[in-house]
Write a structure and sequence with these properties.
This is Stage V sporulation protein AE. By secondary structure, this protein is mainly alpha-helical. The protein has six helices and no strands. 84% of the residues lie in helices and 0% in strands. The protein has helices spanning 2-24, 30-46, 50-57, 59-62, 66-83, 85-113.
Length: 118
């Protein structure tokens, strides 16, 4: 169990280091950095490399923003096999809708509970 935690920490940390280097060294904006990481996850999933990567790294690969790109492509490809071209569109939303909905609901609840300082 300890090696699993170690690799999750190392891989997740490396993904974060890559993002930080994109901010600091490449001087990319947050939008460009996030988009690049999402597209990288999507490309890795499209090539069939993200699932073995996630199996090895665990939460280190499934928590960072790269997994969002993975989820989009994975859902689109899975639904495209059963429903054709329309499945590409519906698959992306089907797989990611619960996470996006949870973020909206919990963000709203947090806004109701806490008051901003300022």
């Amino acid at each position: 169990m300890l090696p699993m935690f170690f690799w999750a920490f190392v891989i997740g940390g490396l993904i974060c280091v890559i993002g930080q280097l994109m901010f600091d060294v490449a001087r990319l904006t947050p939008a460009h950095t996030l988009t690049t990481l999402v597209v990288a996850g999507a490309i890795l999933d499209g090539l069939g490399l993200y699932e073995p990567f996630a199996d090895f790294a665990g939460a280190g690969a499934t928590i960072p923003i790269t997994s969002f790109g993975n989820a989009l492509v994975h859902g689109a490809m899975q639904e495209a096999e059963t429903h054709g071209l329309i499945g590409v569109l519906t698959g992306m939303f089907e797989v990611t809708s619960s996470g996006i909905s949870a973020a909206i609901v919990f963000g709203f609840i947090g806004a109701l509970i806490f008051k901003p300082k300022g």
